[in-house]
Design a protein that fits this description.
By secondary structure, the chain is an alpha/beta fold. About 40% of the residues lie in helices and about 20% in strands. The protein is elongated, with a radius of gyration of 23 Å.
Length: about 290
């Protein structure tokens, strides 16, 4: 039932605005009133810098690199050797910068921070996606992202082969235990959601098969089956097929995800994609022009 699930995609305009905002904040916190170390260098000195990866992985972050250079020194040049979503290998050159030595040094940490984090997110996602090979399950991210970098990390998940869940609290319902308590029941929560925002998908968390049956009867679009056993997940798949989309969640790890996927669930969401990230190990190698 994948085609029945329509979370709001990250559009190009939102992504572009997010990149500018994130880089603006990152540059401001790093440069502050000015780079006093770079100020020691003759302003006319020109340099070239190669950025390489020391690890294999999936590259992500070109938009953030371009914007960092634009904000710090728009005269700096960049030659790309890779694009977002490419597999990279140790010692591979990712991109080459040229321009004022001062500017390249001032930009170094900000652009590397973005590329390391986003490439790490994409790489981790690709690893989880590979574990789903041979199944129809689709991997979803969550809202467990670094504050201020939600769209950046969700973009990286896409580059790694995963799919995006809702962007935030505004574009789709996910009614969890406390929402259900406040509404009085699963049925009450679903009815209220459908009456208030009939155009938004309604997903509700269920903790057992009885709650799943109630969610189906009340007309939920998606059931988040939380911490179900493998046996209960298999039963849930059998009784829900063609009636409701199933998303497995709760403590999903690389050790458990393949077995869960083989039950036949539609989606598996995993917070580890964005909160358990190991940044890709990068290096910027600097050379003064003769």
């Amino acid at each position: 039932m994948h085609s029945d699930l329509h979370f709001h995609p990250i559009d190009g305009e939102s992504l572009a605005q997010s990149v500018v905002s994130q880089v603006t904040q990152a540059v401001a916190e790093d440069l502050g009133t000015g780079d006093i170390s770079a100020s020691l260098i003759n302003p006319d000195t020109q340099a070239t810098a190669r950025v390489i990866t020391r690890q294999a992985g999936i590259f992500c972050g070109a938009l953030w690199v371009n914007e960092t250079l634009r904000q710090i020194d728009s005269s700096a040049q960049i030659r790309w050797e890779v694009k977002d979503g490419d597999q990279v290998t140790p010692d591979q050159v990712l991109f080459v910068l040229s321009g004022r030595a001062r500017s390249l040094l001032s930009a170094e940490r900000t652009l590397l921070n973005f590329v390391q984090l986003l490439s790490g997110t994409a790489t981790r996602t690709a690893h989880y996606v590979a574990l789903l090979q041979g199944t129809d399950a689709q991997l979803l991210d969550t809202r467990k992202t670094i504050p201020g970098l939600r769209i950046a990390q969700k973009y990286a998940v896409k580059c790694g082969g995963g799919s995006n869940h809702r962007i935030g609290l505004f574009d789709a319902f996910l009614l969890k235990e406390n929402h259900i308590v406040a509404a009085g029941s699963i049925t009450g929560a679903i009815e209220a959601a459908k009456n208030t925002f009939p155009d938004k998908p309604v997903e509700i968390e269920v903790e057992n098969l009885e709650e799943l049956a109630e969610a189906m009867a009340a007309g939920a679009d998606i059931a988040l089956i939380d911490n179900f056993s493998i046996a209960d997940t298999q039963t849930a798949v059998a009784i829900s097929r063609g009636k409701i989309v199933l998303e497995a969640s709760g403590g999903i790890t690389q050790d458990s995800i393949a077995e869960i996927a083989r039950t036949g669930v539609d989606y598996i969401s995993c917070g580890d994609l964005t909160k358990g990230v190991e940044p890709l190990d990068l290096s910027m190698r600097f050379l003064l022009d003769q």
